[in-house]
Specification:
The chain is an alpha/beta fold. It is built from 13 helices and 19 strands. Strand 4 (40-42) and strand 5 (49-52) form a beta hairpin.
């Protein structure tokens, strides 16, 4: 993977800051050092993509060029790109990259199989690959490359538009909560990263927060650190800070305490897969936040695009596949030392085994509502079914 420009916005001033990233102007949430960014974009060679390397955040803002199928698959596996919508968009681009030299059925099928095996929980991955396969098999091989890039870029643009719409739809919930608490700051709790970095643009759970902040609502975000990979402390805090949204990082186990003491007005999280009955798989620890929210009478919302709904699964707890990641993510931690150097240290007792389920499933009964680009619905089979247009039902 080719590395692009990098910058260090918040760490040691001893480190030289540069930024060589080139991008075409586009509407986006994150304004970083005076430039607007998406998380993935077509490279200048028109045959590869560039992405923001999320394993380097929050201390280094660095881009990578993905120019081969293996590089795309590795970027998804190692979480250079992550977040269900962005995984799907990246996989779609991976298919186009794989067809760069050969466009026959064997190459198409093999590339889809390799990409499908990268991560099991996020349904957007399979959704995007199935869509690419359906479109590309309908055209002759000589037209597949151009069609693949057109469809992949369309998936990226549609994700950005869907997330922008989620922000507008979800703003209603934030505004209602603010009106119920006049004269004071509104406190929102979120878990993991379901913002701009998890999507092509805007975010899911953070999109309504950005919309509220930009509309003048006084919001403050409690950011769960989200062990073991700390996506809240590193990614959510990074992008909220870049956008100027007031926020505070908290330990994962602090959320229930804050809710008990009236310091959380609502919770909003993303999802990697939503079953047809409204169960939602999200980063491990989400279920515990939903339980605490129910006990304390705090609304608990899930925000996700329609592409995150798996209509084939009727029972999320039973049937959503849960990714088991490396034990090393639990036993070790990576950060930046006082010299501004990235370092990894062991934090667990030597010789101890570690389990690392990456996701859990929150039952629909604990979810106050699901926010999609098409509206806010009840977390139930009936609520989700109301979102299905005749065209989508035929897919």
């Amino acid at each position: 993977m080719a590395r692009g420009g990098f910058a260090q916005p918040f760490a040691s001033p001893k480190v030289r800051c540069t930024d060589r990233r080139r991008t075409a102007p586009c509407e986006a949430v994150l304004n970083y050092k005076g430039k607007h960014y998406r998380t993935i974009w077509l490279a200048e060679d028109q045959a590869s993509v560039e992405v923001i390397d999320q394993t380097r955040l929050p201390f280094w803002f660095e881009t990578r060029r993905l120019a081969s199928l293996n590089e795309v698959a590795d970027a998804i596996c190692t979480m250079v790109v992550r977040g269900a919508p962005l995984i799907g968009a990246t996989a779609a681009c991976g298919v186009a990259i794989a067809l760069q030299n050969k466009t026959d059925d064997t190459t198409l099928d093999a590339s889809i199989a390799i990409l499908r095996a990268t991560r099991p929980t996020a349904v957007n991955l399979g959704w995007a690959l199935d869509r690419m396969a359906r479109v590309l098999r309908a055209v002759p091989p000589e037209r597949r490359l151009a069609t693949a890039w057109r469809e992949a870029m369309l998936i990226c643009d549609e994700d950005a538009a869907a997330c922008k719409s989620i922000g507008r739809k979800g703003l209603k919930l934030v505004d209602e909560a603010a009106r119920q608490n006049p004269g004071r700051r509104l406190n929102i709790l979120t878990h993991c990263n379901a913002g701009w970095l998890a999507t092509v643009d805007y975010g899911t759970a953070l999109a309504p927060i950005y919309a509220a902040h930009d509309s003048g609502i006084d919001v403050h975000v409690w950011v769960d650190e989200t062990r073991p990979r700390n996506q809240g402390a590193s990614l959510t805090a990074f992008e909220l800070g870049a956008h100027g949204v007031p926020h505070t990082i908290i330990a994962d186990n602090a959320g229930g305490h804050l809710m008990q003491h009236g310091q959380v007005d609502l919770c909003i999280v993303g999802a990697d897969r939503i079953s047809a009955n409204g169960d939602a798989a999200n980063k491990i620890g989400t279920y515990l936040k939903a339980l605490a929210a129910r006990d304390c009478g705090v609304p608990f919302y899930v925000a996700a695009p329609l592409s995150t709904i798996d209509w084939s699964i009727r029972d999320g707890l039973r049937d959503i596949p849960i990714e088991e990641r490396s034990a090393r993510e639990v036993t070790h931690m990576t950060g930046v030392n006082e010299a501004g150097e990235t370092t990894t240290i062991q934090i667990a007792a030597p010789g101890s085994a570690a389990a690392n389920p990456a996701f859990d499933v929150t039952p629909a009964r604990l979810i106050s509502a699901i926010v999609t680009e098409c509206g806010i619905v009840e977390a139930s089979a009936a609520g989700l079914k109301s979102l299905r247009s005749p065209a989508r039902a035929a897919e």
